[in-house]
Amino acid sequence: MLVTQARWTSISTCALILGGSVSLLSACNAGVEKQQATPQASAPAPAAPAAAPVVSVNALMVTWIDNSAHVLWNTEREGRAPKNDADWLEIQEHATQLAAAGTLIQLGGTGQADPGWAKSPDWKTNAVKMSNSAVDAIAAAKNKDLPALVKANGQLVESCENCHKEFKPELPTEGIKHHPPHER
Amino acid sequence: MRIVSILVAGALMASACSTAPPPQPAQQADGYKPVVSLNQIMVNIVDPHSHELWDAVSSPGKEPKTDEDWRNIRHAAVTLAAAGNLTMMSGNGPKDQVWREQKDWSTLSQAIADAGLSASVAVQNRNVAALSKAGDQLLQACLNCHKAYKSQMPPITADPEIHKPEFQ
C-alpha cells in the first residue's frame, strides 16, 4: 500500500492520516456515473430548481475528494512541505476543491445508498465539517502558514473518520490505488 | 482552429476568475450554504479539469494511451460532471445567487454536467473520437454560459503553475 511507504513527520498525524485515507477509500470501490441527466423541464423562477446529482458519492470520493485530501495531507510527509508560491497555490487549489465538495456531497449522489445518506442530518453535519476544515486550509495556504495547514488537515481527517464511522464503517477497498497525482 | 477555440474558451473562463471576492455568508433557500465563490469554482475546479480534457484531444500525440492516462481523464470527466451540479448550487460570490436564480442558469450548468458525463462514457469505452466530441460539447457549454453571464474578456491572470501551457 502506498500509505505504508510514507515517512510521516509525526506519529500521531500519521495515524490520523492513515485512518482518514483508508476511511475515504472505503467509500470508493464502486464509482458509478449515471447516464446524462435529462434537463429538468423549464425551471420556475424565481426559485432555483434543486440540482439533480449526476455522479455517485463513491465516484466523487475516488476522483475528487480523496485526491484533493491527499494533496493536503502529503504536505506533512518528510520533505513535502510547501516551499514556494506554486506549492502553496496548489494547496489552495485542492483545498478549494475540498471546500466545494463539502457542499456538493450534501446533494447526495446517484449511488444506491446516496439519497438516504443525504437525508441524514449527520451527513450534512459531517459535510459541513469537511468544508470548514478545507476553508481553514485555504486560509492557511493564503497565509503560507504550515502549522495552520496541519491543524486544518487534522480537522479534515476527523471529519472523514466521523462520517465513515457512521455511514461506511467497513473498509472494503484496501489495495485500491490512489489517483496518481497524490504521489507526485 | 481547435486550439484557437480552446484558447478562447480558456480566456473566457479566466475572465470569470480574475478576482476572488471575499466569502459571504449565504444560506440558500434549499438549505445549502456555499463556502466558495463561483469564481473559485471556475479557477480551481472547472478550468483545470477542462484543460486536462482538452489537452488530451488537442493533437494526435497527446491522446490517452495507458491505463493511467485514461484514469486521469476519468478523474477530470467525473469532476466536471459533478462541477455542473456545483455551479447549479452556486457560490458565495457577490453575483452568484443572482445568477443562480436566472431561468437558464440551471440549463447552462447541466450542460457542463452533460459534457462531463459524455467524457466519462468516452473514457469507459476508451474512445478518443468520443472524448474529442465531449471536449467540443464542453467548450460549447462554456461559451454559451459566458455569452450570457460573463462576456467580457479581461487579461488572463491564471497562474502558470496551475494552468496548462495552452492556457497561457
Low-confidence blocks of residues of chain B: 1-11, 13-25, 153-168
Distance between the termini of chain B: 16 Å
Content of β-strand of chain A? under 5%
How many DSSP-defined strands of chain A? 0
Mean of the pLDDT scores of chain B? 81
| Name of the CATH class of chain B | Mainly Alpha
Kindly describe this structure:
The complex is a heterodimer of chains A (184) and B (168). With 184 residues, chain A is mainly α. In chain A, 58% of the residues lie in helices and 0% in strands. By secondary structure, chain B is mainly alpha-helical. Chain B is 61% helix and 0% strand. Chain B has helices at residues 2-15, 38-56, 67-89, 96-100, 105-124, 128-149. In chain B, α2 (38-56) runs antiparallel to α3 and α3 (67-89) runs antiparallel to α5 (105-124). The longest helix of chain B has 23 residues, at 67-89. Chains A and B meet through α3, α4 and α6 of A and α2, α3 and α5 of B.
Topology:
The complex is a heterodimer of chains A (184) and B (168).
Chain A: H1 2-5, H2 11-26, H3 57-73, H4 85-104, H5 114-119, H6 121-142, H7 146-167
Helix pairs in contact in A: 2-3, 2-7, 3-4, 4-6, 6-7
Chain B: H1 2-15, H2 38-56, H3 67-89, H4 96-100, H5 105-124, H6 128-149
Give a nutshell description of this structure.
The complex is a heterodimer of chains A (184) and B (168). In chain A, 58% of the residues lie in helices and 0% in strands.
List keywords for this structure.
heterodimer; A: 184 residues; mainly alpha; disordered N terminus; disordered C terminus; B: 168 residues; Four Helix Bundle (Hemerythrin (Met), subunit A); 6 helices; elongated
